[in-house]
Amino acid sequence: MNRTISISALCLSLITAGAQAAPQPMASGEAMAQQCAPCHGTNGQALTEAMPPLAGMDADTFERAMLAYRDGSRDAVIMDRVARGFTDEEIHAMAIWFEQQPFKPWQDTTLEEAYDASNAADKAMGGQQ
Amino acid sequence: MSRLEQQTFDRKITRRDLIKVFGASAVAATGIFGASNKAFAQSAAHVVILGGGVGGSTFAKYLRFADPDVKITIIEQYPEYITCLRSNDVLVGMHTLDELTFNLDTIRSKYNVNVIIDKVVGADFDKKTVRTQKGETVSYDKLVVSPGIDFVYDNIEGFNEQVADTTHPHAYKAGPQTLKLKQQLENLPQGGTAIVAPPQNPFRCPPGPYERISFFAEYLKKHNPTGKVIVLDPKDRFTKDIPFKKAWERLYGYRSDNSLIEWISGSDGGQVTRLDPKTNQVQAMVEDFQADLINIIPNQRAGKLAQMLDLADESGWCPINRHTFESMRHDEVYVLGDSTIADAMPKSGYAANSQAKVCAKAVADTLKGESPGRAIYSNVCYSLAGQNYGVSIAAIYEVRDGLIQPKGDSAGVSEITDKPAQPILEAVYQKNWHREFVKDVFS
Lengths: 129, 443
Description:
The structure holds two protein chains of two kinds. By secondary structure, chain A is an all-alpha fold. Chain A is built from seven helices and no strands. Chain A has one domain (27-124): Cytochrome c-like domain (Cytochrome Bc1 Complex, Chain D, domain 2). Chain B is of the alpha/beta class.
C-alpha cells in the first residue's frame, strides 16, 4: 500500500519536474563534491587537518561512511547532518568523483592535473557528470 | 608609474605587447592582462568580478575550473582583505588581524585572473561596461558583483558612522574598529559592565554577536570576574540559541545569580533606541542602561556597490535567480554572498563560497550555450562559545518550490549532549575549518 503511494508520488513528481525548467534529477557529482571543500580542502585535497582528505578515497569507503553517518550508526560531530542532505545516488556520484582526485595537497596540484582528474571522474561516471 | 603599470612592468609585459595580442581597442576596453604570461584567446568571453572578498575570489577560482579559456578580471578596491571570519578571535588575542589578512596573489598567478586594484564608480548595463575611479572603462560579457554589506544607523538615535569610527566601534567589519574594541575590553574597570547590542535580522554572520558575547564573558571570567555582559537584543530568538545558552550555563553561570551574561530579549525591551556617546548611556525600549563599554552592531543592508548599481530592491537586499544567482533586476549581472536574498541560507562566508561555485558553473555553462545544471548549496558555521567549546549549524540546500530550502533532513544545530568530547571536537573542527576555508577561497 505504502509502496503504491510512494510510486504514484514519484511519478507525479517526475511529471511535475518535467513540466518545469530544471530537467536534471540531481546536481552533478562535481558540483556536490565542491561543496565539501571548505572543510575537506579544494577537491578534497586537505591532508593536514582533523577532517580527512576525500581525494583518492576508495569510493566504497566513502559511500559506506556517508550511509553510516546518515543512518546514525557512526558517531559524528557534524557529518550526520551533512549526510542527511544526500540520496544514495548523490552519495555514489560524489564517491566516484572524489576517487579520481589526486591524493596530494591542493597547493602542490596544477590546474592541468585538476582538469585531468575532473575528466577522469566524468569517464568513471559514464559521461553522466 | 601606477600600481597596475608597475605590476605589468615587473612581469615584463609591455602595453605594446598586449596591443599586439589583443588589439588596441581590446586593451583600452578591458585593461591590461598583466596577470599571466599566458595570453587569453581573443574570442574568449570576459567575466568581470567586482569585489575580491570571499564571494568574488571563490568565483574567480571556480570559474577557472569550469572554463580554462574565459577571460577573468577582478576589480577590488583594496590590495588586502581582512576576513570578518574569526575576527572575534582578535578581540581576545586568539588571532591577530595579520593572520586574517589575505590578498589575491595566488588567484592572479595560479588561476590566470587579471586583478585591478581600483574602485568602481559606475556601470553602463546597456554598453556592458564598468567605470573605475582611476578612469578605466572595463567591458564585460558577464558581470559578477560580490559587494558584502552596508550598515544602517538610522534606527538608533545618537549612533552613526562617525561615532562607530571614533568612540563606539561596532567592529562588525574587521579592521581598526576590531582593535579599538579589543582595547576597550582590556580597559574595562574591575566590576565594570559591557553592553553588546546585536542587530535585527537579517544580518551578516548570524552567530557572530553571540560568539562575541561568549568571548567577552570568557575574558571577564579570567581577568575581571565581577564584571558583566548585558545583551540588549531586538530579537527573541537567535541562531544556535539553544546550544549557545547551554554553553553559557556550563561556562558562565547563565541563568544563575552570578551569571556573567544577562540576555534581554526583544519582548523584554531589548531593542536599543538611543545612544549617548558622551555619557555612555543607552536607552532601550523599557529602561536605560549605563555601561563602561557599549558595542552596538548596526542593522544591515546590501553593500554600497549593490545599491549604487541598482541591484538591491526596496528591502535593501538583492533579489536573484535561485538557480544561478543572476540578478532579477539587470541581465548579464550576477550577485553573490551577503547582499543577496537567498531565503534559508544565512549571510555567511561559507554561504558566499557555496553560491560562488554554483554561479561560476552557471556562468560557464551559459557562455557555452548550455543550460546550467541543478544547483546545490551548503552552509556550515562553527562558532566558539569558549575557546574550547564549539557549537555548529549545518545544512545542504536545494531550490524547491521556487525557494532555497534545506535538502533532505540535513538542517540542524549541535545536539545538546553530556558527552564532554562533543563541544571540544567542535572547537577543534572550527579551527581546522577556518584554515581550510581561506585556502579554498584565496589559494
